[in-house]
Amino acid sequence: MERKLQEILDSAIPLTQAMGIVVERYTGRELTIIAPLANNFNHLGTAFGGSLYIACVLSAWGLLYLRLREAGIKGSIVIRKGNAEYLRPVTGDIVATGTLPTEEEFAALIESFDRKGKAKMTICAVIEVEGKVAVKFEGEFAVVR
């Protein structure tokens, strides 16, 4: 599954190639992506805020994409809104991990999609530095036929 997602990111979202994004790990509940600092630094030598935001969005979007495909759902996924808190500088590679809410919430998303042809879900992602949260992200994603 990770390889398929990597192919989609590389072909459908060209920015991921410039950022050097690599799909690292998928567990069914979490998706971790990595972007090297060398491709994503700012004038201070730390990770660029836009890159941090995009890494969080993609870890959440990619997680939802994989879970929906596993469930046989072929809808389009778009972000409706997102919010990031930047708590400390990221001084190394960007490691963003998106986490699904409960299985009950995911089941409700599928039920809503089956019934209405659309659904939405909030997914959180974090970027940590030395075991401490550096970026907290919360995004609302919509799935439509």
UniProtKB/TrEMBL annotation:
The lineage of its organism: Bacteria, Pseudomonadati, Chlorobiota, Chlorobiia, Chlorobiales. The chain crosses the membrane at residues 47-66. It comes from Chlorobaculum tepidum (strain ATCC 49652 / DSM 12025 / NBRC 103806 / TLS). Residues 3-144 form the Thioesterase putative domain. It comes from the Bacteria. Keywords: Membrane, Transmembrane, Transmembrane helix. SUPFAM superfamilies: Thioesterase/thiol ester dehydrase-isomerase. It holds the Pfam family YiiD_C. This is Thioesterase putative domain-containing protein. The keyword Transmembrane helix applies. Signal peptide: none annotated.
